[in-house]
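Objective 1b: paired records.
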Amino acid sequence: MNAISSIVATALVLVMTIVGGVLLYTYAMGYLNTLNTGRIIVHDAYYLKTAGRICINVENIGVGEVEIKSVEIVDVNGSIVVNTTVNTILQPGESRIIQVNWTQTTLPKYIVVVYDKGSTDPVKIRILS
């Protein structure tokens, strides 16, 4: 009877080791995949009133490339007035100024940059003459 219980105990330890290894592998792969993504931040956004243009300075601070899909512009009334398609790719560490024409009668207030991995938090637009 002792031989059967030691075999069962060995099998249980082996199964627990395999399950633990699979769990550790799954966790590590998920963590490493998040490190390989890009992330966009907005350094500055300003509206050139005389030119009728909004300039947005964005940078990819992640370690993977990102594709900027669009820019959403919210006016002072809180409505998304403009949703402009951009479709531009930023490499890690690359920054770029995106320009969007503004022909609305209300002033722009916030912008949100939408990219393939998510979107930025709303950023207040500075009004310049």
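Objective 1b, second protein:
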Amino acid sequence: MRSPLSQSFTQGGVTVQIEIHKSADGWHLELLHTDGGFTVWLSVFPTDTAAMAAFTIAVELHGLARLLAVGGEYLPTLH
């Protein structure tokens, strides 16, 4: 089931599609990049709101471009 919180998000000229969906084990969070790539959180969330909160906190702490960056201390597709 796709969450109604799924949406497009832009920061600093970088746009992603936030996809939050439910499976048997809980809610999952993915970012679909405009270049065809994606970023997946390994955490499973109890609610779609918790998944969106995790995204919001990560963007506030690091910025969207840094979340999508390859290399450095962050994994490019896993959070």
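Residues 54 and 76 are 17 Å apart (CA to CA). Strands lie at 7-11, 14-23, 26-33, 38-40.
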